[in-house]
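Protein Record: Sequence and Backbone Structure Tokens
======================================================
Tokens: labelled as protein backbone structure tokens, with as many entries as the chain has residues.
Question of interest: how does this chain fold, as expressed in backbone structure tokens?

___
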Amino acid sequence: MVKILISLIRMQRYDDKIGEKEVLKKRLPMQLEELQKNVVTAKKRHEDAKKELNNNLMERDKYELEQESNNEMMKKYESQLSLIKTNKEYKALNNEIAALKEKNSQIDDQILDLIDKEEELRVILKQKKEEQDAAEAELKDKEDDLRKKIVAVEKDIEKARAERNEIAKTLPTNIVSRYASLIKNKNRKAVVFLNASNGCGGCGFSVRPQLLIDINRKDTIISCESCGRMIIDKELDEDKE
């Protein structure tokens, strides 16, 4: 029975390792995904900044074209002034010219605002481009290493499972089935030791004195009366401190 108990402890050690590696197996792809998301986000922000600058330049072009149109109209009106024969018509045409000048003055203010805004947008665009470059560089720098780690972790898991299964082949089927059920349903903990208070190392439930004696005898598999985990004397643990 001692050999069986030792084998169960060894299987649990492998399952502990598998559990740790499974956590890492999930975490590593998440880290890679986060780096990829950072690149996508940085590109989006860079593109948004570029669009905002382009919109600014297009709006400025629109105002400048409007000014040119107004200037052409003023020239046309001014050339017509010498042909006007009545004061009323002369005054009306002058009013049109004045209105166009006032409009161009307002457009000048709007263009100046756009020029100021353009300077700000170019600074932001440069910043967003730098952020995109940094995100892409980080991904390039870490992606290959993360992928290698993912492959290595998967190999470690496969190796630990194979070694655990080799031990399982030496045990009675009913014990292996019981162990497997506990691993599945008890947070990957089938085998535990007594805690400092002589309680179950899995759930903390207090172990009766008679069961403590049985555990110490090492001639049978004792189950926790609360969680059902196998409680084995830590003296049999080959890796005990």
Summary: DSSP finds four helices and three strands in the chain. Helices lie at 2-81, 87-168, 173-185, 209-217. The mean pLDDT is 94. The radius of gyration is 40 Å.
